[in-house]
């Protein structure tokens, strides 16, 4: 699994498209598919949009479900995740937004631990972290 992180509109999607360009790629946004489509590379982006539909009070169960699903998807194709950095020290005032930020943080920690490669994209420039 490869994870690409950066702020919104920092060039993550374009970078990933160029990186995997010659291969058959399927990109899914805002969803966590249960079944892998036929492809060489499956790119999942905007997982935070899927997270909003979950009960964020149960963040540990959510993290475990996501990890298990991603491990299953990895058996069928190369998996690349594009995630948005939501932290940066800003704590939202609304409870739901705080829960989303906290759950994303816990999920990203687990993803980074499991990933073979982690790359930060900052205004289109890649910085390998792992």
From TrEMBL:
SUPFAM superfamilies noted in UniProt: P-loop containing nucleoside triphosphate hydrolases (SSF52540)
The keyword Metal-binding belongs to this UniProt entry's keyword annotation: no
InterPro entries cross-referenced by the UniProt entry: CobU/CobP, P-loop_NTPase
Record keyword Iron-sulfur present: no
Signal peptide per UniProt: none
Tree of life domain: Bacteria
Pfam family, one: CobU
Name recorded for this polypeptide: Bifunctional adenosylcobinamide kinase/adenosylcobinamide-phosphate guanylyltransferase
